[in-house]
Design a protein that fits this description.
Mean pLDDT of chain A: 83
Structural class of chain A: alpha+beta
Low-confidence stretches of chain A: 11-34
Oligomer: heterodimer
Strand order of the largest sheet of chain A: 4-13-12-11-10-8-5
Helix content of chain B: 25-40%
Largest interface: A-B, 32 and 35 residues
Largest sheet of chain B: 8 strands, mixed
Number of strands of chain A: 13
Low-confidence stretches of chain B: 107-129
Shape of chain B: globular
Mean pLDDT of chain B: 88
Radius of gyration of chain A: 29 Å
Number of strands of chain B: 14
Order of helices and strands of chain B: HHHEHEHHHHHEEEEEEHHEEHEEEEH
Strand content of chain B: 15-25%
Largest sheet of chain A: 7 strands, mixed
Order of helices and strands of chain A: HHEEEHEHHHEEEEHEEHEEEH
Strand content of chain A: 15-25%
Structural class of chain B: alpha+beta
Radius of gyration of chain B: 27 Å
Distance between the termini of chain B: 69 Å
Distance between the termini of chain A: 78 Å
Chain lengths: 412, 428
């Protein structure tokens, strides 16, 4: 065996021997991660090429016995064996140096609040999925997309010339032709496919000039907050592509249907808490409402949000959780708009309900969603609810018609 | 024989010659051996390989040309090397012509007048006459598209503080993307090709070619002649690919008189480094894609080469050089790849010129370039008596706007917008 391996084995056995185990455990627990003393490589030419990091020193415990005066070697200005180590008073620099900055504990920070806030962000994986999202946003789910919306893409005047062929070319380009390798990797493929399909839809701008009144934004940070029952909730983060419009979307369900939702009883998640999987924070700003743009943005109305799944392999979401994320962020965008228009006070019924659409894909499956915000009063469980007509479709040609229909909503 | 019959001698001779011509040769032609250890055999092997490649279909041709991996110079379009444009002109046999071709040249005369007037509130009536088919209202719409693209990124969107050397990526890349997509769709009604076009965002363009030769100085192959191989791996910000080819800017014969700078020293002194990996020839999409011809590429100047940083390093003269080198290599690679997709290569030179355009910007300053590929025969054997040269046209830097103040764009330059429109409207 090589001498290095012998050394490593010895080190390993030493690590797991009885006497050292407790010391290492303490080290592990105090730092919250495993600091395994493996040899690391040194890229030096003049000395040996592997070295072990020095053993972490655990400082000796300082014992305070009241009544006993501690004799230190501080006055003598040098170490004297037998005398105690002097404790110096805490000293702070009078200028700010980022290299030597220690953050204060969270309860001393200025934004600390006793009441926790539950934050939903782009990496949250809601345990109960869509049911949890519907409860938190006080929404009723309607199983299918409204027919008048789907019929938008059926009309021949709204279809792209050679639609099937061009959709297939777009898919082939995203799947196979976009790279010098055999196949592009998944994130690239998803992105290219979505952009190709959007590009196809936007070519209708020559016949429908209202498409020119829209803008696609890649990264914008959304912030919205609301109170559901006794819990403070916030939505934050960059979620996806936003297609925003100069004109608002018309409502999808009429006034009677909206009033009819008052009788609907929301599905409770008992015994699971409704704020499960949401990040609990004590440091937050209250009443944040920011759509990611300034107030004089020429495209203030959010039209559709396009979610791409699988962008980061560490935070992959299951289909149910992905749909929940779509619902929450569509709601977040609508809520920010409502707060801007009607003020931050909860409104029982909005005069003009705000509609936001969402399309989510992982490259193979497409999820379509239309969210209509009818109320911003989330304190009680009864009353008018928001509505979500949603549908999921597999890989079929009708998918593009739905995509096109959602895109054209608001143009005509 | 002639003496026996009464016919004259010359008549007999003529009969003999015609008989010899009509008779097929009894033996095959005498050629050099294929397998001997000689220079002639090597030349014949090459000849056979060339004949086989010419006879094969395009996909196989590309695979055959790029199959053998050897050490090659990796040419970076965005390079820190000084005076890189002279070197790259030599490698790609390109002549640089200052100013854009006649199609876009009207913009040059107006630009000197426009620069004197600072405000861009209403364009003078003369500019409308230079844009065929676009009236004042349409131009106003296009101006508003550009203004909104600038404002949406620089004013309206709330962005966090930028990290070091990621300024361009966060601020300028989204602006350029919005500009490209906005202009493409607004101008689609004037250029129906754009409706069928494919707009790639962050595509890949690769090209592999041979140019020049050297004698190997050391090693087991010492003394042998080896061709210099080059590879370009480019990543433009975005590009538009169309289904039909753009028409040429000038005839191929007009390029015979153009001057290409000669560089007598070895390429690695530029500095240029050799690596060995897969040889790629790629326009942005594989062979089966119907949109195989290029229209316009858009490039972003990275943070490292921005004007203010170059000024701090006292290299302001290198700014234009960098832009020229970038346009040259990117467009050469793109047009070369397009030509190879059509079946032309080193030993089968192009029969028609391939044309593409490029816009290089750092967010505020725009440079426009046009490239015409007249020849792909760049290796030593094929370039010996090849009078054709490739041509690059480029104009001087134009500023798009001065600054953004209180949600209003100050100093919007209509020249730049007009040139952008002319570039995108260009169609066969």
């Amino acid at each position: 065996m090589l001498p290095e391996t012998i050394q490593c084995l010895k080190a390993a056995t030493r690590l797991f021997s009885q006497t050292d185990f407790s010391k290492d455990l303490r080290w592990l627990s105090s730092h919250g991660r495993a600091s395994f003393r493996q040899a690391r490589r040194c890229f030096i030419v003049s000395r040996c090429l592997t070295a072990k990091s020095p053993r972490p020193r655990i400082p000796r415990e300082r014992v305070e016995i009241p009544g006993l005066e501690v004799i230190t070697y501080g006055e003598r200005m040098h170490y004297v064996p037998g005398l105690a180590k002097p404790v110096n008073p805490h000293w702070e620099r009078d200028y700010k140096d980022p290299r030597y900055y220690y953050a204060p504990p969270s309860h001393e920070m200025p934004l600390y609040k006793d009441e926790p806030c539950y934050v939903f962000h782009q990496r949250t994986s809601a345990l109960e999925g869509v049911a949890q999202a519907l409860w938190l946003t006080k929404t009723k789910m309607i199983p299918s997309l409204p027919p008048q919306l789907l019929s938008l893409a059926e009309r021949a005047s709204n279809q792209i010339p050679d639609q099937d062929e061009r959709v297939q070319t777009a898919i082939k380009h995203a799947c196979f032709w976009d790279t010098t390798e055999e196949k592009p990797d998944k994130t690239k493929y998803c992105n290219t496919l979505l952009l190709n399909l959007l590009h196809l839809c936007t070519t209708l701008q020559t016949s429908h000039s209202a498409i020119g009144r829209r803008n696609l934004v890649d990264s914008y940070s959304l912030m919205a907050s609301w109170k559901r029952g006794n819990d403070l909730l916030q939505i934050r983060g960059q979620n996806g592509l936003l297609l925003s419009c100069m004109d608002p979307l018309s409502e999808v369900s009429g006034k009677e249907e909206v009033r009819g939702t008052a009788d609907h009883i929301l599905e409770t998640l008992y015994p699971v808490s409704s704020t499960i999987s949401l990040q609990k924070v004590h440091l937050y700003k209250e009443e944040v409402n920011c759509s990611g743009f300034t107030d004089d943005y020429p495209y203030p109305h959010a039209h559709t949000i396009y979610f791409l799944e699988g962008a980061d392999p560490r935070w992959k979401l299951r289909p149910e959780q992905f749909r929940a994320k779509m619902v929450m962020f569509a709601f977040g965008n609508a809520l920010v708009r409502a707060h801007k228009l009607y003020g931050p006070q909860p409104q029982r019924e909005l005069d003009h309900p705000i509609t936001v659409q969402a399309v989510g894909t992982n490259g193979r499956f497409f999820h379509f969603l239309v969210f209509q915000l009818n109320t911003t009063d989330f304190s009680r469980d009864d009353g008018i609810k928001n509505q979500v007509p949603a549908g999921l479709s597999g890989y079929r040609p009708e998918t593009f018609s739905k995509f096109l229909a959602l895109y054209l909503h608001g143009v005509l | 024989m002639a003496a026996r019959s009464r016919l004259p001698l010359l008549f007999h001779l003529k009969l003999v010659h015609t008989e010899a011509a009509a008779k097929k040769p009894a033996y095959p032609p005498i050629v050099h051996s294929l397998t001997a250890k000689s220079k002639a055999a090597k030349a014949r092997q090459l000849e056979e390989w060339v004949k086989k490649t010419i006879a094969s279909p395009v996909e196989e041709k590309l695979a055959t040309i790029t199959r053998m991996q050897r050490m090659k110079f990796v040419v970076y379009p965005q390079t820190f090397a000084r005076n890189a444009d002279r070197w790259y002109q030599h490698f790609t046999k390109t002549a640089y012509v200052s100013g854009l071709p006649e199609k876009f040249s009207l913009g040059q005369e107006k630009s000197t007048e426009e620069k004197s007037t600072e405000e861009g509130s209403s364009p003078p009536a003369a500019t409308q006459a230079t844009l065929p088919g676009i009236d004042r209202d349409a131009f106003e719409d296009i101006r508003s598209v550009v203004t909104r693209a600038i404002l949406s990124v620089h004013w309206h969107t709330k962005k966090p503080r930028t990290f070091v050397y990621r300024d361009q990526e966060q601020m300028v890349a989204p602006f350029l993307r919005n500009l490209v997509t906005g202009l493409t769709f607004s101008l689609a009604k004037y250029n129906p090709l754009l409706l069928q076009a494919s707009v790639d965002l962050n595509p890949q363009v690769n090209f592999y070619w041979w140019r020049g030769q050297r004698i190997i100085p050391k090693g087991h192959r010492k003394g042998r002649v080896e061709a210099h191989k080059f590879q370009i791996d480019d990543h433009p910000h975005s590009q538009i690919r169309i289904t039909q080819q753009l028409p040429e800017f000038t005839s191929m014969e007009a390029s015979y008189a153009a001057e290409v700078p000669e560089v007598t020293v070895a390429p690695n002194l530029m500095p240029l480094f050799r690596r060995q990996y897969e040889n790629h020839v790629f326009t942005g999409s594989k062979l089966p894609d119907p949109a195989c011809f290029g229209h316009t590429q858009f490039h972003l100047v990275p943070d490292r080469y921005r004007r203010d940083r170059m000024a701090k390093m006292q290299q302001l003269d290198q700014v234009e050089v960098f832009l020229r080198a970038n346009a040259l290599t990117s467009l050469f690679a793109w047009t070369g790849a397009q030509a190879m997709y059509q079946g032309f290569w080193n030993y089968e030179d192009v029969t028609r010129p391939f044309v593409s355009q490029a816009v290089i910007t750092d967010g505020k300053f725009f440079n426009f370039f046009c490239y015409q590929l007249n020849t792909l025969a760049l290796s030593v054997e094929t370039d010996a008596d090849n009078p054709r040269k490739n041509v690059l046209w480029g104009n001087e830097t134009l500023k798009l706007y001065d600054r953004v103040e209180d949600g209003v764009v100050v100093g919007l330059n209509d020249d730049v917008i007009r040139l952008l429109v002319q570039f995108l409207i260009n169609q066969p």
